[in-house]
From TrEMBL:
GO cellular component: cytoplasmic microtubule
Protein name listed in UniProt: Enkurin domain-containing protein
Biased composition (Basic and acidic residues): 160-180
Region (Disordered) location: 1-30, 71-120, 144-180
Start-end of Polar residues biased regions: 10-19
Lineage: Eukaryota, Metazoa, Spiralia, Lophotrochozoa, Mollusca
Amino acid sequence: MHGGGMMMVTGSSYGQMPYSSRPESRMRDHLGENVRRMRQIQRQAKEREANAHQPVKALWKSEKYSGVTSKIKEDIKKPPSTPRPKSATFLRAHSRTGPSIKNISRPCTPDPPSEKLTVPPARCSSEIRFNRNNIDFIRVNGVSAKRQTMKRSPSVNALDELKKKEEEEYNKHRKGEVPK
């Protein structure tokens, strides 16, 4: 053994039984358990549904208020009030623009003569031939993209000009000479 503080254990592993000697009681039928659990849940849902169809028990009401009638019940029994003629249509769309459009009948527009049409009618669509030039649009777009200059903001252009000026002044200066 080396003096590194490491200890080596040889032999069988502790706390684990070899695979062949495991008892059969530990093997579980997960599929069967899942099916049983699903059926149990279905049974409970059916029971809840059957209980839901039973009549609902009336809520408890104090004897003190047994002679008092409901105000909502009174409102329901009242006949509806007559509608207000002017305010009934207030702020409705087109309520003050004159007679309703539904009552006005319009004559049918006749089809224009075919020589005046700029677009041929749909029934003639099978006869139309398109004039297409053999243009490679992908190549045209690529060429125009190469020619395109990148547009820069005025502040960036001004910064570039300032840097160029400073660099020119620096290059004008003679290095190694002592100024007078």
